[in-house]
Amino acid sequence: MTDKCPSVTAWRVARHRAKHQLLENGIVFSDPLAIPVLGEDAEFLKAEEERPGEKNFRLFMAIRSRIAEDKLATAVQRGVRQAIIMGGGVDTLGLRNPHKNSGLTVFEVDRPLMQNWKRRHLARTGLKVPESFTFVPVDFERDSLSACLMKAGFDSTKPAFFSWLGVVPYLTRESIENTLRFVASIPGSEIVFDYGEPIENYEGQHRRLMEERGGFVASVGEPWLSRFNPAEIHAILLKAGFNNVTDYDRNGISSYFGWPAKSPFGNSL
After folding, report:
1. SUPFAM superfamilies recorded for this chain (predicted)?
2. pLDDT per residue over 244-261, tens digit each?
3. CATH code for the domain in which residue 164 is found
4. Which of 34, 218, 226, 265 holds its CA 20 to 30 A away from the CA of 9?
């Protein structure tokens, strides 16, 4: 790439989504644009040497995307017509919009630098931005999310679905709490997001991999800023105004997908 993605982590996540289509045939999360959006050769991706812990991480990426899009489908069934992808990176939901015929509008929120690059990148790959997709440049730490969304056409009087994947660990606690309060203030809305637990909550190889990953993201200028224990994030959500909270741990994920207690992917989850 001569015009590199300004977020190393966003690009790596996109490549994990693409490799899931190639190596596991998209068994958890099927995304027909995951490979085209990269603009890379699929065989090159497939031939790459797998690093320790990569399969685990790749499947986690697929699982969180699948759960988010399942929840979005349910939201659309109950009448939601606004979806907000926060920290969209190289995500393809806005391009695919599987609920376009139901009238779903997708707002993708990300840093201005990232969105400017994505527009250029999509033009290079030949992927078209549908009319149902709106870019919303926002810096979560500095800008008013509500003001930026409403300027882009978002209607805060109508319910909305928010997807916030792979973003929370990179934000300050204040920014996270402000965002959650805004989402909770919109009647009939819901949010799906993931968060990281403190490193000391992990053991053995999993802990070593998390420490290595933490060191890597810091080295590329995208350090983790916030990590939470489950009880802590639950309390934050209740305080923000949410009254129905579901937190999927490993067993919860297995139950969600109808897998046995030991996932079919072994220790990948």
Report:
1. S-adenosyl-L-methionine-dependent methyltransferases
2. 999 999 899 999 999 886
3. 3.40.50.150
4. 265
